[in-house]
Design a protein that fits this description.
By secondary structure, the chain is an alpha+beta fold. It has two helices and four strands. It is about 30% helix and about 50% strand. Keywords: Ribonucleoprotein, Ribosomal protein, RNA-binding, rRNA-binding.
Length: about 100
């Protein structure tokens, strides 16, 4: 198996402050780095209005992360993000060049 490039976007609870959001992001990206992957870029968009209401939230904190790792590490990252109640929505895309 070889490493692939991924892009993760997640939306966190709008009540979280910047420090908590950074802590949450770093905590989850440890899943990638522990498995030998690398975090290439973290882009915190901050609080934005959602296109539609999700779990009674009208806003959310958006974070976009580009990372490189094995598919198993990416699957584990997705799994642990979905277990956290502070994370409203996640989306992971594989960005490898075709």
């Amino acid at each position: 198996m070889s490493a692939h490039k991924y892009e993760l976007m997640f939306i966190a609870d709008p009540a979280m402050d910047e420090r908590s959001l950074k802590k949450l992001t770093d905590q989850y990206l440890e899943v990638v780095t522990k498995e030998g992957g690398s975090v290439d870029n973290i882009d915190v968009w901050g609080r934005r209005k959602l296109a539609y209401e999700i779990d009674k939230h009208k806003e959310g904190n958006y974070v976009v992360v580009e990372y490189t790792c094995e598919p198993s590490a990416s699957a584990e990252l997705d799994r642990v993000l979905n277990l956290n109640e502070s994370v409203i929505r996640t989306k992971i895309l594989r960005k490898d060049d075709k």
